[in-house]
Amino acid sequence: MAKTKRRTKRTAVGIGVMVFMLLAAGCGGNDGGNKAADKTEGQSSSAATASDKGGVKSTEQAKALKDLKITRLYHGAMETFKGSDTINSNRLIDKLREESGFNIQYEALPLENPSQKISIIFASGDVPDIMTIAGKSDYFKLAKQGALEPLDDLIAKEMPNVSNMAGQEALDAVKFDGKIYAIPYRQAQKVGNGLLARTDVLKELGLQEPGTLDEFYETMKTIKEKKNIAPLSIATSNPGYFFDGFTPFAAAFGVATPTKIKDGKLVFSWVQPEYKEFLETMKKWYDEGLLDQEFAIKKGTQDTLINGTAVFTPMYWGSVPEIDNALKDKKEGGTVGFIAPPVGKNGESGLQDSSISTTYIIIPKQAKNKLGAAQYLNFLYTPETDELVNYGIEGTDYTKKDGVITQTPEQSANIPWRSIYPLGDTDAGFAARLKAKGLLPYYEPLLQYKKLREETNYAPSVEAYDAKFTELRNYMEENSMKFIMGKRSLSEFDDYVKDFNAKGGQEAIDAMNEWYKNK
Amino acid sequence: MQTQKPGIKAVRSDSVFQLLNAAFLSLISVSMLLPFIHIAAKSLSDQSHVVAKDVWLWPKGLNFSSYDFVLSYKQFYVSFGNSLFITVVGTLISMAVTLLAAYPLSRNGLPYRRLMMLIFVITMFFSGGLIPTYLIVKDVGLLNSLWSVILPGALAPFNLILIRNFFSGLPEAMEESARMDGASSLRILAQIYVPLSMPAIATISMFYAVGYWNSFFQAMMYLTDRSLMPLQVFLLQLVSNDKPADMVVNDVLSGVTPESMRAAAIICVVLPILCVYPFIQRYFVKGIMLGAVKG
Q1: Is the fold of A62-189+356-425 the same as that of A193-352+446-517?
Q2: A32 Cβ neighbours under 8 A, 6+ residues apart
Q3: Number of neighbouring beta carbons within 10 Å of residue A203
Q4: B227 contact residues in A (CB cutoff 8 A)
Q5: How is residue A268 annotated by DSSP?
Q6: For B86-107, what is the mean pLDDT?
Q7: A206-227, pLDDT tens digit by residue?
Q8: If you classify domain A193-352+446-517 with CATH, what class do you get?
């Protein structure tokens, strides 16, 4: 009895699902149930035709089609259109269409979870001709699935200008099975975070800008004595923040990058004896009240510099204007400026290199206009187009005299959305936009400091490493904070190293060394 | 309840209970209200005070530049229009579908009633999965149309059950007498059941309306055209932007700190739907008892 009951239940479920699908489809179409049923039936065959189409197109690729669809990652500037301008209708895109000869249409992926949408787009077969993808793992996953068009031939024949955007090393890093499937989206920003100081406080106390780590320590001690504040503020409450925030100090010990080279092999910095030294020093600073006692739960440190509760903090250069303005509004006033990251006993120092691209420009295998996609990218990468997408239209948005370009802040502010269109940033373009905004003084001081190279950024996808990296970093961060705050004794550092390696650290670095030794 | 009756003296322990109860409930409501007030205060404050974390519940350096900023986005108005359309049209369609399904399902005479109900309930626990659903939406030609936000989820089985239970609670004799007078089923539904179920309908409409107003996942999946984005997607993009380099570089953030701007954006998005509540609140008191007592 129970069995038959269960069986009827199961058939009921089956019928239920079918009926519901029909109902849902019937509600969807305006044209009743019949057509909807056809649609659901035709679904599997439509996927098949889509792949057929891809095959046919690749054989008759002699001529590029005119229509070109570009789906790019979300960009905040997309919200800045005014009046009747939209992403696909404004004077700049008109000009791009005119000059390139393609009827380009730009679309954006959602800001939230773009990789989900990307997999749906690929699954549906309705793909654009050019697409941007964020993240190494997503890119290599798609390359592995065969969803992407190999670009080697197209680069050789159609895209000589790629060299303006990506060097050989960058292209090597995107190779999968020896083939290039993407052009890395070029980052023009070389460095992001620097060590920011309240320069007025240093002056008030008659202190020099510290050069070495020891001088930095002495300076902090003096500030602590005279002002009774914790001079160094860092916020590490989110995953990844510890690694970013402590970079200028870890660099003095040569352990600011995830991996380093020792005896010709890659090793994790986080398990080296010098990492223990770094932790010991930070613990000393913490114990002596020089380091913000609440660093582990802080989300940001801007307020500490503004309110004068700290003098030093690692800060993204783009956030400095905000601090500057807030200080100007204050009665007491104050000035901030970047100082050199402290130099360790072996002469090591530096800041994080932020020029590594983790965004990839790809052409889907099923794209209808692959040739056109390659030609359009090549067009984008010419210096003339670069000028167009960074300054706008000559005469309206900027003036040019004897090769010197002048763009007023107003002119720049009229077309804030222009940076949606380039697929890769050039140094000239980046500098131009910064200049028009008056931001160069905040960015340029950082360029003089040494930027630390992370070797694994130039590696292709190494499964054992990439899959474990975030977990390992989080484990390192969690324990580093415990060590610094005395929640875990540093005498247990060896146990921590053992656990780190057991958690996949050893496997990850071994896999990475396979690549490194054959490089 | 008896303590409320006049003539019977409140027992001491009851008044203590009432007091504790009131204190507890006010604590809960305050804890829910505080973040909202905090955001509102931030949105009205001067940027430098917000960055310095001076603002708590009262705005400092009162100014409206954050609102100016949010309202200067063209996309805000476009998105507002989209959200309004989705909410109004979506709620109407959802209510129509729900009522038309709930009425027959509440009648005892309908054959295979339990099976049909089961079919509806199954969809509460299992869905077809993201990609199959996407493919259906694509194949019926709804991609990049506001209907894709409304139609695939037009009927919420949970709401259907609530309405059906409410309908079941209405005396059958009423329907019988109407039928004797020659009323058709549609007329019975429209002129007897709907007017009698206003509390339920108002409540469920509110559920649907809030759902549509807050929906953003469908919009994110099915819409790529910027001009079709509803308000929630716009808000998400404003709020969760952790200020990437190019936003600073491109004038997007000038003058106003992201934080006060975010706060203003949140208020702008929450306020419209908040304004709907007072109008239907009078139905809520009855509404929450929906289907609680059957028979």
Answers
A1: yes
A2: A26
A3: 11
A4: 86
A5: E
A6: 94
A7: 999 999 999 999 999 999 999 9
A8: alpha beta
CA distance A114 to B178: 56
Report whether A177 contacts A393 (CB < 8 A): no
User: Is there a contact between B266 and B39 (Cβ–Cβ < 8 Å)?
Assistant: yes
**What CATH architecture applies to the domain A62-189+356-425?**
3-Layer(aba) Sandwich (3.40)
Q: According to the model, what pLDDT value does residue A59 have?
A: 43
What is the structure's pLDDT at A425? Answer: 87
For B194-267, strand residue ranges (E) read none
pLDDT digits (tens, 9 = 90+) for A453-502: 898 988 888 888 988 998 999 999 999 999 999 999 999 999 999 999 99
Which of A178-182, A331-335, B73-77 has the highest average model confidence (pLDDT)? Answer: A178-182
A24 touches B: beta carbon within 8 Å: yes
Which chain A residues have a beta carbon less than 8 Å from that of B226? 78, 86-87, 108
Note the pLDDT tens digit of each residue in A397-421: 888 888 888 888 888 888 888 888 9
Contacts of A306 in chain B (CB under 8 A): 48, 51-52
Paired with A262 in beta bridges are A265
Residues A286-314 have pLDDT tens digits of 999 999 999 998 888 888 999 999 999 99
Q: Is the minimum CB–CB distance between B249 and chain A shorter than 8 Å?
A: yes
Rounded to two decimals, the ipTM of the complex is 0.71
Distance CA B102, CA B109 (A): 14
Please name the residues between 202 and 261 in chain A that touch chain B, using a CB distance below 8 Å: none
Count other C-beta atoms under 10 Å from residue B224's C-beta. 21
Structure tokens at A418: 């222009």
Say if B250 is an interface residue toward chain A (CB within 8 Å).
yes
**Tens digit of each residue's pLDDT (9 = 90 or more) over B174-228:** 888 888 999 898 999 998 888 888 888 988 998 899 999 998 888 988 988 888 8
How far apart (Å, rounded) are the C-alpha atoms in residues A158 and A151? 10
Sheet with A193-198, side-by-side order of all strands: A312-316, A193-198, A336-339
The letter for the amino acid at A329 is D
Is A508's Cβ below 8 Å from some Cβ in B? Answer: no
Are A318 and B135 an interchain contact pair (Cβ–Cβ within 8 Å)? no
Q: Does A302 touch chain B (CB under 8 A)?
A: yes
In chain B, where the domains are located: 2-64, 68-287
Q: Which residues pair with A68 in a beta bridge?
A: A104
Helices B198-214 and B157-169: angle between axes, nearest 10 degrees: 170
Contact present, A73 and A132 (Cβ < 8 Å):
yes
Domain B68-287 part of CATH 3.40.50.10350: no
Beta carbons of B247 and A112 less than 8 Å apart: no
Chain B closest CA to A42's CA: distance in Å? Answer: 9
* Domain residue ranges in chain A: 62-189+356-425, 193-352+446-517
Whether B242 and chain A come into contact, CB under 8 Å, resolves to: no
